[in-house]
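User: I'm putting together notes for a lab meeting next week and I want to include a structural view of one of the chains we've been expressing. I don't have a solved structure, so I'd like a prediction I can at least talk through. The sequence is below, exactly as it appears in our construct file.
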Amino acid sequence: MKSLSIPNEEDVARVLFYPSFFTEDDNPLISEGVLSPTAFKLQVLKSGVAEKSISVLRSSIDSFNHDVAKLSPRVASDYKYGYALLNVGEIRSIEIPTTKKTAIAVNSCSSKSLPSHAEIVFQLDGNTITAKNEPLEVIRFRKRLARIASKRIIRL
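Assistant: Thanks for the context. Below is the predicted structure for the 156-residue chain, given as structure tokens.
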């Protein structure tokens, strides 16, 4: 699977699951609901592999709606709520207060099963952050992503 950079003008979507991706005080029936930063938290998979990127889908790809329908929650008590649209340029322009060098990449990594699949990768001092390594900068990054995503939530 080859990764290609996505243009800044494009939007990507994070599929949202309720209640895991929302704070307890939020009512997901309100379209302006605020997402929890957990909506962008990297996970250690059942296999023990630590995620190194946040999975998103490219909304401009023909298979987008089909790919959204394919995704299911990891938590049995969750249901698919909808998705949040994020502008790629806005993601890349996120600034985190730190003395470390940050880099944010948004890349296409499509596959036969998910042609619109893409990923958001966050690096500190040249090291890709994984689910097993989450410094304060990553928590701040997730909070900023949640704020951006909360502006454009599409309910299914």
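A couple of points you could mention at the meeting. The helical segments are 64-70, 88-92, 136-150. The beta strands are 4-5, 11-18, 54-58, 79-87, 102-108, 117-124, 127-128, 153-155.

User: Perfect, that's what I needed.
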